[in-house]
Amino acid sequence: MYNSPIFKIKIFSILRVFAVFLALSAFSAPAFSQHDAPGHGQEAHETGAGEEKKFEPSEVILEHIADSHSWHLWGHTHIPLPVILYTDKGIETFSSSHLDHGHYAGKYYTYALEHNKIKVVNAEGQIDEAATKNVWDFSITRNVASMWLSIILLMVIFISVSSAYKKREGKAPKGLQSFLEPVILFVRDDIAKPNIGHKYARFMPLLLTMFFFIWINNLIGLVPFFPGGANLTGNIAVTLVMAAITLIVVNVNGNKYYWKHILLPDVPKWIYPIMWPVEIVGIFSKPFALMIRLFANITAGHIIVLSLISLIFVFKSFAIAPVSVAFVVFMDVLELLVAVLQAFIFTLLTALFIGNAIEEHHH
Amino acid sequence: MELVTPEIGLVFWTTVSFLILLAILGKFAWKPIMTAIDERERTIEEALFKAEAAKEEMARLTSENEALLKQARAERDVILAEARKVKEQIVGDAKDAAQKEGARMIESARLEINNMKAIALADVKNQVATLSLDIAEKVLRKQFEDQGKQDQLVADLLKEVKLS
Question: How far is it, in rounded angstroms, from Cα A361 to Cα A257?
Answer without folding.
Answer: 7
